[in-house]
Amino acid sequence: MSKETTISAEATKPLNVLLIGNNPIELSVVLEKLQQVRDKKIITEIAFDLKSILERLIRFNPNFIFIDDNLGNLQLRETVSELSNNRKTKDIPITVLKNSNYHEAAGSGAALDYLLKQNLSADALYNTVKNSLKFRRTQLYLYQAYQKRKKQIGKLI
């Protein structure tokens, strides 16, 4: 399969985005912005807590996750930890939607990116998704290459 075929097949593949937060009004704004993205089909699901996240994961396979930092530090930390350790979501990029830039979202070390809600636009959301997915693919490729080389070196020694 040529590189061009791979890119065009990936460009037509829909994005499955899981939105997590406890404020339906703010999540609806994010959803509306995602629906404004042109030339890309984006399928979204919304979850409000760990229980509803796990319910969504039974029938929905997200390839990107946005988490609203309004959840609070403890619930944000638990949610990111659960998603990072879940077999189905451990390799999915997570972006935290922040209210301000004055404090770091506590406990969100597994999140790849942060996005301020005050400047939210369809382009900003899509660029975040696109860049995070590329970054995550690169991380996974490098990890697999490292594991392969480590085994080869182990056989030589």
Characterise this structure:
By secondary structure, this protein is α/β, with parallel strands linked by helices. It has one domain: Rossmann fold (3-Layer(aba) Sandwich). It contains five helices and five strands. It has helices spanning 3-12, 24-35, 50-59, 73-85, 122-156; strands spanning 15-20, 42-47, 64-68, 94-98, 113-116. A five-stranded parallel β-sheet has the order 2-1-3-4-5. Helix 4 (73-85) links the parallel strand 3 (64-68) and strand 4. Helix 2 (24-35) crosses helix 5. InterPro entries: CheY-like_superfamily.
* Largest sheet features: 5 strands, parallel
Q: Measured on Cα atoms, how large is the radius of gyration?
A: 17 Å
Number of helices: 5
Q: Average pLDDT across residues?
A: 81
Level-1 CATH class name: Alpha Beta
Helical fraction: 40-55%
Query: What multimeric state do the chains show?
Result: single chain
Give, in order, the helices and strands. Answer: HEHEHEHEEH
Strand content: 15-25%
Give, in spatial order, the strands making up the sheet with the most strands.
2-1-3-4-5
Task: State the shape.
Answer: globular
- For the record, the count of structural domains works out to 1
Q: What name goes with the CATH superfamily?
A: Response regulator
Query: How would you classify the helix and strand content by structural class?
Result: alpha/beta
CATH topology tier name = Rossmann fold
